[in-house]
């Protein structure tokens, strides 16, 4: 008997197996049926059936960020595909490797407004690292190889495949492909030697050096090398929101997060350093504040795998094109200890003078819940967050101590990210506790995935910091818009405990300070599937320190200002 | 040194893989950053896997460096070079239909001959002229022809090639 010629869909699934894919996060539909059909014969790949396609992308993203492996999404055409757009943007902004497989109408019907047709290739051009509208079944092995290569190498990102149903349903006689030929695609490795020497010469002159590390340090696993560099130079370290965990935040030289809601001592260090060295960070507007006032007298060195980041915001004195880990490792032998003991002492004094604080009186405080969680988990958990006040408080009070232990939507600031991302992270890293810290607003954007979490029996813990407000917007309206609250009251919130129970998910409520430790411990001990804690915190509280958007670091608010504030000039 | 013109014209040569969608991806890089594309010529290469785009554009000079970097970042872009100020050969082709009743013919044909243009269509009331050369020259000829009445005009957009050993 002749060997059966596989269908395009079967070839795609075979390619996923060859790439070592464990999970596909998906939701079916007419145009994707051939792919779902092929999954039936591939028990190596577990299908995680979600409740909404946005959730699938965030799960794949959380999986990718926790494991370093690409996350795979499988959805149908039209609305199924367009529902992934927010998740694709989220992954693109934060450099997470995703493969998004979208069903599509049959190719003769493209452009004819067929049922559930959407030009998803066109819609997603600005938010993908790369994409393919596949027209020939025989191109599939090559395109699949390229897609994984592009998604996972260099600066990682999402790659989308638009797959007409006749392509996935048709026969594919082309052999598997093991290498790629992409003449326009370069992957920087070790920075140029002469540039490294220039950087080393500038570093040698510094007396107040500061290392500033971001997502690139996480992706490349640069933490150990960065710690060695910090120790060798005797230089303090700050990290971005996404850089948390690359180097343990409990290291003596680590000053925590910088930027809009960074620690005051990290921001004081930024204001006063004479050299700032970005290691896989991109001088984001929530880091810079006011460009003309950002470290105007400091030497700037920028190590990045993406050359388009040089000069985009900041013109560095030296730019090092390359992988963050390999760049720092190559720089290490070229530098020696700096005369920076006074500077390190100065930073330590700021740490003492301006510690992170919160009022212990007047009801249950979000900061207290998170501080307690940090004490109980002692840096041993993976934490995902949503976006808003709880995210910033978590970034401040949860110390990230190992790489890929902090998963948060930074660039896109996507509400609804945290909980599904935690599902993906927990599937990818089953033996590490995973906490999804979310707000009552964002959680409701993707809470339908409670069904997915329950079905997958992932033992993740959902902690809702519930103030019945869209707290960060409310904070801005309080501080900068004369207390004119508009569209921020979450009146109508459900009873989250009952809601969880309706999905068969164990749940608790925290109302008093005295409950916090006990219930957090109960949740930590609970391993029979997901569980949820609804922490009803005080309604009105603000995140400080705060550098108002577009303001300079000198205008940092350590606590609530007495005077009326002008409307911020920065974007967000 | 002259002050930079806020809307100075630049000519960028982009070597791309001949893949579907590459033109859209390139155009989006310009559109997002407020750059106006004045002309864009796409042409095949000897090797059919690649195409050449010659793009004339104008906008804030500070943004151009970022545009070139973003172009280069596209997977299908092999090379992107701003040739403004480089030693290059620049050419453009124009077809111009000009009103030309018999009483004006001699003058119009003198202009064409002087600028080494070719008459490619000869009608009783109009001529079609083919002009090739630098964009400045074509602009100048169009200015001279304007009083006679330009009915229609098509310009190919500028193409260029770097001189000597330099790559385009």
Quick structural summary:
Chain A has 572 residues and is an alpha/beta fold.
Output the keywords.
heterodimer; A: 572 residues; alpha/beta; Rossmann fold; 3 domains; six-stranded parallel β-sheet; 18 strands; 15% strand; B: 168 residues; alpha+beta; Alpha-Beta Plaits; 2 domains; five-stranded antiparallel β-sheet; four-stranded antiparallel β-sheet
Order of helices and strands of chain B: EHEEHEEHEEHEE
| CATH topology assignment of the largest domain in chain B | Alpha-Beta Plaits
Gyration radius over CA of chain A: 24 Å
What is the top-level CATH class of the largest domain in chain A? Alpha Beta
Number of helices of chain A: 23
The total tally of domains of chain B equals 2
Please report the first level of CATH classification, the CATH class of the largest domain in chain B. Alpha Beta
How many domains of chain A? 3
Indicate the proportion of strand residues of chain A.
15-25%
Q: Superfamily at the CATH H level of the largest domain in chain A?
A: Thiamin diphosphate (ThDP)-binding fold, Pyr/PP domains
Distance between the termini of chain A: 65 Å
Q: Terminal Cα separation of chain B, in Å?
A: 27 Å
Runs of chain A in which pLDDT lies below 50 for 5 or more consecutive residues are: none
- Mean pLDDT of chain B, nearest integer? 92
Number of strands of chain B: 9
Structural class of chain B: alpha+beta
Oligomer: heterodimer
Description:
The complex is a heterodimer of chains A (572) and B (168). Chain A is α/β, with parallel strands linked by helices. Chain A folds into three domains: 8-169, 3-Layer(aba) Sandwich (Rossmann fold); 193-353, Rossmann fold (3-Layer(aba) Sandwich), CATH 3.40.50; 366-544, 3-Layer(aba) Sandwich (Rossmann fold), CATH 3.40.50.970. In chain A, 37% of the residues lie in helices and 15% in strands. Chain A has 23 helices and 18 strands. In chain A, strands 2-1-3-4-6-5 form a six-stranded parallel β-sheet, sandwiched between helices. In chain A, helix 1 crosses helix 2. Chain A is globular. The model of chain A has no long low-confidence stretch (mean pLDDT 97). Chain B folds into two domains: 9-82, ACT domain (Alpha-Beta Plaits, 2-Layer Sandwich); 88-161, Alpha-Beta Plaits. Helices cover 27% and strands 40% of the residues of chain B. Chain B has helices spanning 22-32, 61-73, 105-114, 135-145, and strands at residues 9-17, 36-44, 50-58, 77-82, 88-99, 118-122, 126-133, 150-155, 159-162. The two termini of chain B are 27 Å apart. The model of chain B has no long low-confidence stretch (mean pLDDT 92).
